[in-house]
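Checklist before submission:
- one chain only
- standard amino acids only
- sequence pasted in full

Submission:
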Amino acid sequence: MESQPPFEQIADIPAAEMDWHLARALLDWQVEMGVDECIAEGPVDRFAVEAERVAAQAAAPAVARGGAAPAEPRAEIDAVEVARQAAQGADSLEALRAALAAYEHCELKRGARSLVFADGNPKARVMILGEAPGRDEDREGRPFVGRAGQLLDRMLAAIGLSRDAEEPEEAVYITNVLPWRPPQNRDPKPQEIAMLRPFVQKHVALAKPDLLILMGNISCQAALDRRGILKMRGQWAEAFGRPALPMTHPAYLLRQPLAKREAWADLLSLKARLEDL
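Returned file contents:
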């Protein structure tokens, strides 16, 4: 058999003089060396080709490609506006609770065991606005039932108030900014406070208390749009159209027992305000 010329000499052989066996041997060698595409007469801008292909595919009607017509883009849901409309439609506390239970735009709902709505006498002159349920509250479905809640009950009893009292003058009504427990008791996010604020505002309007107690930073943020409870505590303000007294949260008092003296001063201020009214 006649021997083939070395591969380095093949490039110099005119295509017309190559037989089939030589061309096939050259192709096999190129494939073995990793060649996967032919070189054309002129350069090809592969990026431009791909861009044209994508543009043409996007411009072609979906029906022509054998699929369904392109869907219209979904409008972004305004969770705060949905909450506002739902709260406005509630004409009683029972209806407000049902509206909260039907609200699907807060992710906290999916991880909580219970909807913690309220406790105490809804006709009470004093309404306490807490922050969010903890583990015990999530288990029982009532606000302030853990250690902080037990301390709160003793604080209220010291000035003649109780969540179990039947007379409005001696009773309190308790709720939270958030009705669902945040994971690991983390602080509520600003967007969570914003979307649930319309329910809180409606809750106050339906309960019609004479005074509000804002327990902790989250309550002040929801009602006064401010934080800094250690500076605000003891200073009367106005929230949702009613006198409001910021106070340190009982959970803080459990961690800082020396702060109970200031809390006692706030309770005396509350008692005096009730007597004036």
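Reviewer check: The radius of gyration is 36 Å.
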